[in-house]
Write a structure and sequence with these properties.
Layout lengths: L1 E2 L6 E7 L2 E6 L2 E6 L19 E5 L5 E5 L6 E5 L2 E5 L14 H14 L4 E5 L5 H8 L3 E6 L2 H13 L7 E5 L2 H11 L5 E4 L4 E3 L5 E3 H13 L8 E6 L6 H11 L1 H4 L2 E10 L6 E11 L2
Parallel strand pairs: 1-16, 4-5, 9-10, 9-12, 10-11, 12-15
Antiparallel strand pairs: 2-3, 3-4, 5-6, 7-8, 13-14, 15-17, 16-17
């Protein structure tokens, strides 16, 4: 498992009975987690002193209950700063486990000794975009949500990357990739973090089970003659590490060469020594 273990402003303190207790900077949140199917005693005081608690509804969705939590605050990872706020669907605008991937590809970019062009698809609030830019890459950031792209720009400014070579694009990712192929544009690295289900800005339907592999095949056409890496993240049940490995190995590897790896990503739990699984990633390293 690839573990995001270098956080100082974030930690999973404990997890039990379908929930996790997390510290986001100065604030404690309790959120549901479907991976936490075990039950242990809630010994940490944070279970009773949390600043926010997301309650899952038996009918789907849920709602927040707040106890002295600001509307927005920020945390840092190294030189990167992320603005956070609680969403109506339990998220805060950041997936801390992805730091395991940020560390991996940032090292590749820094050690490449050349200019690297990165395409980040389904780029959300820009965690991977900022990590790549901070490592010295130029990045094209693509997401179908105008609001998320705006949030990512705010994170860039907060991280001192407001003037970094980042191209911000609000578009359907598949259509954008198709246009880039026609334009003849190429990238040294591609990152994608596709949702299980979604809609583009013009109502385009995305279902990961039927849409992901054709997109990976398209993206293989965007890889430069001197590629550096390819990364797919998945939070979808059923897309296990082996599936990500096979997708990259069949659709991308024959055109790029290199080494394919895939594994779970996770977060250490400070209170009990466990590692909480948080999805899977497939990596192609071409150096």
């Amino acid at each position: 498992m690839w573990i995001a273990e270098n956080w100082k402003d974030y930690e999973v303190i404990d997890c039990t009975d379908g929930e996790k207790l997390e510290r986001w900077g100065d604030y404690l949140l309790v959120r549901p987690d479907p991976q936490v199917i075990w039950t242990t005693p809630k010994k940490h005081r944070g279970w009773k002193k949390m600043n926010g608690h997301y309650h899952r509804s038996t009918k789907g969705g849920g709602e927040w209950e707040f106890f002295d939590l600001p509307e927005q605050w920020s945390i840092s990872y190294g030189k990167l700063t992320f603005n956070l706020k609680p969403f109506s669907f339990k998220h805060t605008g950041l997936f801390p486990e992805q730091a395991a991937n940020w560390d991996w590809f940032s090292k590749l970019i820094r050690e490449s000794g050349r200019s690297i062009k990165v395409l980040n698809l389904f780029a959300y609030t820009g965690g991977a975009t900022l990590a790549a830019a901070a490592a010295g890459a130029s990045v094209t950031h693509v997401d179908a949500s105008k609001g998320m792209v705006g949030w990512a720009k705010e994170n860039a400014v907060s991280s001192g990357l407001g003037d970094a070579p980042i191209r911000w694009i609000v578009d359907d990712c598949v259509k954008f990739v198709e246009r880039e192929i026609r334009r003849g544009n190429r990238y040294d690295a591609i990152i994608m973090d596709p949702p299980s289900y979604g809609r583009g800005p013009k109502g385009e339907v995305w279902k990961i089970e039927t849409s992901i592999y054709p997109l990976v095949e398209l993206c293989s056409q965007l890889m430069s003659d001197n590629p550096l890496f390819f990364l797919i993240n998945s939070y979808t049940t059923g897309l296990q590490p082996a599936v990500l490995n096979y997708m990259i190995s069949t659709a991308v590897l024959p055109k790029t060469g290199g080494k394919v790896m895939a594994d779970e990503i996770g977060l250490p739990v400070s209170g009990n020594g466990l590692v909480l699984p948080c999805g899977a990633s497939g990596r192609l390293e071409c150096k």
